[in-house]
## 1
Amino acid sequence: MKDVSIWWWNFAVLLLLLLGSQLTPSIQPTKQEATSNKSGPLYKEKQFTWETKVLLTGLDIPWDLAQLPDGGLLITERTGKLKLWDTKTVQTVAELPVATVSESGLTGIALHPKFPENHWLYLYYTYRTGGELKNKVVRYVFENNKLTENKTILDGLAGGQIHNGGRLRFGPDDLLYVLTGDAARPALAQDPKRLEGKILRLKDDGSVPDDNPTKGSLVYTLGHRNPQGLTWHSLTEEMYATEHGETANDELNAIQPGQNYGWPTAKRGALDHTGFVAPLLGSGDETWAPSGIDFVGLKIWELRYTAIFAGLRSQKLQKIEIIDGKIASQEVLIDKTYGRLRAVLAKGDGSVYVTTSNRDGRTNPQADDDRLLIVTPVEKN
C-alpha cells in the first residue's frame, strides 16, 4: 500500500509540473527588444527597395510641402504662388507679393497642430521694404481653398539674395520652429541678440515660450550658416537639421537647445574651438547642399530609424538610419536621375514626397520641370 501511495504522489507532482508549464505565460521580448540588435535571430526584419514615381509636372521652383488632413498637398513656389494638389488636379490658391531675387521668395510652410479646428497656416517669405530685403513669418486662415485672415508673427529678419533659411515646422511640443540663414552676413550667426543664422522657437502667436534657452529670446540654437531642413526622430523625438556648409562640408546636425553650431568661427568642419557642436554627419569634400529632411514614421516598423534627405547640388536623395544618436547606415536612393532635389515630406505610410528644383537658375531644366515625386518602400521577396 505504501508503494502505491508513493506512485500516486509522484504522478500527481509530475502532472502539476506539466500543467504548470502550459499555464505559465512565456516571457518573450517585445518587438523593439528583439530588434534592438539588428543581427539578432529573434525577429527577422523585412528588407525594402525604393521605387520613384512622378506625380506632378510643370511646377515652378517648388520649395516646401504641407499635407492637409484630407490627403491633399499645399505646395509653395519660390516665385510667390501657393498651390493645392488634391491628388487629381492642381490649382493656385494664393499669390503673395514676394521679392524673388536669386534664392529669395516664398519658402516655408507649416500647418498648425490643430489645423482641423483653427485652419491656421504659416508661411515664410522674403519681401522688399525701403530698398532692403527682409524675411517674415505670417499666419493665415486657410478655408475653402483660400487664404483669408492674416497676422504677421515674426518680421524684420535680415534678408538677402542668398542664405535666407526659410523652413517652418511645428515640433512634438506644438511649438513653431523657424530656420533662418545668415543673409550672407556671417557675423550675425554668432550674435545672440540677432535672429539670423539661428533656429528660432516660437509660440503659435509669435511670442517667446517660457522654457526657451534664454529668457525672453526666440533663439533656440545659434551658429548656423544656411539651415534648410528640420525633422524629429520617429521614436525618440530628437531634433535634426540639415545645413549648407562653406565650399562643401555640408552638415546634418543633432539639435540641442541653447547650443552653438560654430558658423562662422568654425569653418569647413574644423570645430577646433570649445563650445561648438560638431555635425552628426558631414559631406567632407563633396557638396550636397542638403535641403529637406524627414523621418518616414512608424507605419512600417522596420523603417522606424529611417530619415530621408534631399540634395540640391548633389542631386541625390539619401536614406540614413539614426540609432542611439549615431548614423547606423547611409544609402543613396536617387542619384542625379531627376536633377536638383529640395523638399521632403513623409506621407505617413512609409513613403515620402520629394520635389525637384531645376528652374532655380542653377541647372538646365527639362520640359516637364519642376516635378513632384513620391518615393515608396517596396518589400523585397
## 2
Amino acid sequence: MRFHRRALNVLSARLDRIFRVGVEDMKKAIQDKEGLVEAVLHVATETLRLAKKIVGKTFPTKSLTVFAHSQSEYELLVRILEDMGKPHNYNNGPRLELYEPIKVGDNRITHLRIRKPDSERPQVGCSDFETDYESFKNDYLSNHPDNLRLIKRPEYEMIEFYDPGFDVLAYVVSG
C-alpha cells in the first residue's frame, strides 16, 4: 500500500510538471515578426552551442528552420515569412531567401523555413551547418554515437546533432 501511494504521488507530480510545461509552451508561441526573429537568433545561437558541446567546434550556417507547434502558429508564421523574402523551395514547409539576412555572430542567415507542426519535433528549430559532408562523416560520426545520428533519404543523407538538454537540432547534409 505504501509503495502504491508513493508511486501515485510521483506520477501526480510528473503530470503536474508536464501540464505546467505545456501551458508555458503555449504562452511562448510566436506572435509576430519580432518573435520569429527572436526564435531565429535562439536557434542559431543554440545550434552553435550544441555543435561545440558534441564535436568541440562550431560550423558556419546560413539556412535555418523554425518549427511550428500548432496549425494556427504555422499559418501565422507563414504569413509573417511571406513579407521577409522570396520563395526558394518547399520541404515540410515554405523556405524563403530573406530580403535582409539575419546576422548572428559571424553567421548571416540567408534562408529561413517554417516547418509544419510535427509531434516528433517539439524543439524550437534547427539549422544546417555548412561543412564538407564526407569529411564530417568520416571525422565525427562514429566518435559521437550518442549525439550524432545518420539519416538516409532516397536522394541524400544527413547527420543530425541532438542532445536532450537542448531545444534545437542541427544537421550536416550531403550534396
## 3
Amino acid sequence: MSSPRTVTLEDVAREAGVSVSTASRTLNGKPAKVGAATQARVRAAAQALGYATNLAAQATALGRSKSIGLVVSTIPEDYQNPVTAGLFRSAGNRDLLVSTGISALTDVDKTRQVVRQLRGQRPSVIFVVGTEPADSPGMAELIEELNWAEREGSRVVLIGVRGTNLDSVVMDDHRAGGDMARALIEVGYTEFAVIAGTAPGLLSKHRVAGFREAVLEEGLPFTPDRVIWQEFTHDGGYRAVGELLRRRDGINAVFCVNDAMAIGAAVRMREAGLTIGADIALAGCDDIPALRDIDPPMSSMHLPWTEAAEEAFALAEYPESDGRTVVLEGHAVLRRSTPGLVSR
C-alpha cells in the first residue's frame, strides 16, 4: 500500500487560486503585500489540505541554518523539563538541530546576549521558555531583541510568556488553580492552605487567585493568611510547611503552586511526623513524572507542557502578522496523597 502523497506549496496555491509566490509569502511570515482576504483563503486551503511548512527546507531556501534556538531559564521550574523535551522531539521530527542558551529571563542583559548569539546562527525559529510577566523590568528590551530576530528572518515563539506582540503558548493558570480546588472539595476537603512562589509572581498569583475564588464560591473559608509565600523551589516548599505547622489552624489540605514546592513540603511534613494522605492532604501543580514514584504518589494539576511544544512549532510553521496566543488547559489528577474525606 503506497503512502499518502505529501501536500506541497503548489497544491495549496492551486486550491486557493493564487500564485505559488503569494502562497509562500502568506505561509512563510511575509504577507505584507498580500491582502487580508487572500491570506485567509491561503491559510484555509493549507489547513484543509493538511499542509505543513517544512522548516528545514524553508531554512535552506531563505539562507538560514537548519536549526532552532532555544532559550530556557536557570530557574528550576518543573514544567521546563517536559517543554524542553517536547521541543527537542519536535525539532528532531523536522530534521532540525537545537542550539540551547541558558539564562533566566529575569537576568535580561544575559538573556539578550544569549538571543544575540542565537541570532548570529541564523536559526529558523527561536523559542523562549519562561514565566515572567511581559511588563516586568527589562522585558521590553528583551522583546525588542526578539523582534529584531524576526525582522532578520527567524520566527520567534514564546512559551509561558503572554502579553507581547509575539506568538506565544501559555497555560490557563487561573483555571488550573480553580480546577484543583474544585477537585479537592469534591472529595471532601474544606480547610485549605496554599504554598505560593514569590517568583515568577504572575504565574503564582493566577494559580492562587483561581484556587481562592473556587473555594469561596463553594462557601468555604479562605483568608489571606491561608497563603504562604516562599521561593518557587523545593526549599521554598520546605520552609513554607515549617511556617504552616506553627499556625496550622485545622487545615486538612495543602495546594502548592508547583511540584518542586510540593516535594519540599512533603519532606518537611514527614519530618514533623505527619502521614501524607492520612493526617494531611497534599497536591502540586504541573504533574511532573516523578510524582508518581513518591510514597504516597502525589496529586497534581496536570498541565500539557509537552503538547505546548508542538503547539509552538505549529505557530512557527503558520505565521501571521499579528502575535497570537494559544491557551492550553489541564486537568486535576488525584492520587493517594489526597484520598478524600467523603468516606470517613
